[in-house]
Design goal:
The chain is α+β, with helices and mostly antiparallel strands and 163 residues long. It has two domains: 86 residues; 57 residues. 21% of the residues lie in helices and 33% in strands. It contains four helices and ten strands, in the order ααβββββααβββββ. Strands 1, 2, 3, 4 and 5 form a five-stranded antiparallel sheet that branches. Strands 6, 7, 8, 9 and 10 form a five-stranded antiparallel sheet that branches. Strand 4 and strand 5 form a beta hairpin. The longest helix is centred in the first third of the chain and has 14 residues. The chain starts with a helix and ends in a 14-residue tail after the last strand.
Length: 163
Amino acid sequence: MELSDQVVKAAREALAGGIAGDKLVRARGRLRSPVALEHPNGGTHSWLVPVVVGRQLVGLVQIGLHLEFLRFTSFQRRLNSLEGTPPMAEWFSADRVRSLAAAMARPAELLGKPVLTYDQIPDRLVWRVEARAPSGEVRAILVAGDLAYEPGELAGTIGGLGP
């Protein structure tokens, strides 16, 4: 069995076992392909399996490298409701992520491929896009939802974290 199939199986078991998601998610949620969550210094930290109902992203099942359930992140504002959940493409469209990063790019910078990672702690999911200047200097642009920013720019403002 392929690793991605094993990751999806572990996520499915978490939903079926009731340790992830509410009634609506367990009944109507569909698992999408897992996405590697990269450690900011390189290497895979864990796997995220998006859970959708229709086109709406209702949650993410996080599976560890040993196929253990780590957590479930819900995008629902209220139990058993889709109201306010984002479209799947809002979080998992590489074109959308690159477009948001491009708004922060400096003249002549070339943008790399978005990589799913985290900002300081694994609970703060972001896409990292490398911006390479003609001089060879590389900097990161982080994208979370509709927000694009540079590392450290929000230090101390989200969850009380410092730099």
